[in-house]
Amino acid sequence: xxxxxxxxxxxxxxxxxxxxxxxxxxxxxxxxxxxxxxxxxxxxxxxxxxxxxxxxxxxxxxxxxxxxxxxxxxxxxxxxxxxxxxxxxxxxxxxxxxxxxxxxxxxxxxxxxxxxxxxxxxxxxxxxxxxxxxxxxxxxxxxxxxxxxxxxxxxxxxxxxxxxxxxxxxxxxxxxxxxxxxxxxxxxxxxxxxxxxxxxxxxxxxxxxxxxxxxxxxxxxxxxxxxxxxxxxxxxxxxxxxxxxxxxxxxxxxxxxxxxxxxxxxxxxxxxxxxxxxxxxxxxxxxxxxxxxxxxxxxxxxxxxxxxxxxxxxxxxxxxxxxxxxxxxxxxxxxxxxxxxxxxxx
Length: 346
What we know:
Elements: E1 15-19, H1 30-42, E2 47-50, H2 61-73, E3 77-82, H3 98-103, E4 108-110, H4 115-123, E5 128-130, H5 134-138, H6 146-157, E6 161-163, E7 169-173, E8 188-191, E9 196-198, E10 203-212, H7 213-221, H8 228-231, E11 235-239, H9 247-259, E12 268-272, H10 285-303, E13 311-316, E14 327-329, E15 332-336, E16 341-345
Parallel strand pairs: 1-2, 1-3, 3-4, 4-5, 10-11, 11-12, 12-13
Antiparallel strand pairs: 5-14, 6-16, 7-8, 9-13, 10-15, 15-16
Helix pairs in contact: 7-9, 9-10
């Protein structure tokens, strides 16, 4: 296995960039954003530094790329945090200055549409971090989830192995950002039922690659993903977004990864717990349970012709549900189906 290139870590008191390379939602929900910034300062003891497009909706992709490049170029900035996801970051990454990014590697934190940046950094040889959002996780109503915060703190400040844990409770029904009062109380949570394992009993150790499944489909269409040879021996880590793709859509995306020759590269696949509730699709708890089962079946069915011997673990809390565990992107992971354990190296 090629050793990953982990950027240096920040220390408490450092300046960190807060950027919106995807959607400029801090402009629409400043009360949520300010709460996230306050927790970044008071609980993580990091000083956020904003850029011209951080609070701008619909900023030109070239301007967003310029801000992201500037954050990497600034020697006083020791990490870069995305405010939130969106749906057009694929138009931003072509404008990044790759020479600057290679010369100034820094930990980058983001998920969802930020899969575009994570994949871009992976192809430059820089380990990044899938997870962490100033609006979603730092500004979680009530308080940050303990599992999320412990994982984020470890990913920011430490470099050793970190054991992931199944969440004793989880949620996918967020409080409405349109109501400032909703920040005062915790979101709805459901009892956790652990991870679901399938495949042979063995330990797999490799580098991670993947992200938001729908964004990976866009990247494949744009021909911006690594080759099967480059990914050989890696662990695929995927999750689905708040757009709630159907089981059939998920099946087709994973099947298309197989047709591209990618699925056979992965001795293990780690799948995030699927989000199954949104404001325009308020499913009941039984409907959400059935939704999750259909998603698991779709991925199992898609994997079967291409990689029937993969170790697969479902319902890991790493995507659009709450809590969110941070996963090093391009970094090391151990998936042990015998001991039912997953560990990542931050």
